Amino acid sequence: MRLLLSAALCFSCFAAQAWPEKPVRIVVAYPPGGGIDVMARQIAGKLAPQWGQTVLVENRPGANTIIAADAVAKAPADGHTVLMTSDATFSINPHLYAKLPYDAERDFVPATMLVLLQQLLVAHPSLPADNLADLIRLAKAKPGAIRYASYGSGSQPHLSGEMLKYKAGIDLLHVPYKGISLAVPAVIAGEVELTFSGIASSMGPLKGGRLKPIAIGGAQRSPLLPNVPTFAELGFPEVETHAWFGLFLAAGSARAVIEKIYVDAKRVLEEPDFRQKQLVDKGYEPVGSSPGEFASYIRKDRENRGRAVKISGAKAE
Fold first, then answer.
1. How buried is 293 (Cβ within 10 angstroms: 0-12 exposed, 13-18 middle, 19+ buried)?
2. Among the four residues 106, 214, 263, 286, which has the most C-beta atoms within 10 Å?
3. 313: three-class secondary structure by DSSP
4. pLDDT digits (tens, 9 = 90+) for 274-294
């Protein structure tokens, strides 16, 4: 037994020392130009000199992150192909799709959660509600008259909006748009009254008076918006608005390689200048969780999102 354990440890050490033996590919499950893509390229640029290899970013958008996830699940488990995706892949999709081309639990191993981000409930300035209590009173007085935008059935804004409806006992009209970049402009244009949006994409319109904040997700207020209360402090902790970005490898990847990716990515997140300017100032909460911590978090998150999907009645589009 000791001999087998020693051999396993030696192999693990060798795997970490030998890796990477060639360029590393980070497969991003979203199109170029978005927040997760920008972050992937920034992190890749910092990991390349640490690893002594080129770190390439390959965008594989489509099918609600399924295309990218499937590509990584079927890639060689040698640590040279890494998936960078959001909570949609592992927390939401397993509840939306009756069948996926991979098993979200069995076919991947988490390396680290990079960041957590909370979304705001924002409103058009003309809406006669400046806080959540006002919004709830207005919605009860005019059932179905207030519209909220999302970027599709089962998207984070859809789940958050339906959970708010369920917990507050109100009726809001869901208006799905084809893409994350269309929901906020729809509110600014007055096509709909509400949406849930990240701080980065909301800050400009908020400062310009083209949107107004109602509430934000999370356990604590954002330091960027200290006057905006959380849903939790307003009595609605079940209205979860968070998303996260993380790194994953194909199941069977060497433990030492997974740990190295975690440690090196965490080191990038802890660089003071990068942490402040590229993450905190843009509304991201740096995390850098260990593989084990990340796996535990995903299990709980998947369970919570399952309840939200059931309440929303969301189905894969």
1. middle
2. 214
3. coil
4. 999 999 999 999 999 999 999
Q: What is the DSSP letter of 130?
A: S
Q: What is the pTM of this model?
A: 0.90
* Residue 286: partners with Cβ closer than 8 Å, 6 or more residues away: 114, 115, 269, 270, 275, 279, 280
Count of domains in the chain? 2
Q: How far is CA 213 from CA 118, 176, 180, 227, in A?
A: 13, 20, 18, 9
Residues 7 and 104 in one domain: yes
pLDDT value for 200: 86
Nearest to 230 by CA among 289, 314, 169, 164: 164
- 90 with 174, same domain: the answer is no
Structural domain of 195: 119-216
Handedness of CA 44, 48, 51, 56 (dihedral sign): positive
User: How many angstroms separate the Cα of 79 from the Cα of each of 161, 235, 245, 259?
Assistant: 38, 44, 18, 11
In a domain? residue 56: yes
Residues 125 and 266 in one domain: no
The gap from C-alpha 187 to its chain's centroid, in whole angstroms, comes to 22
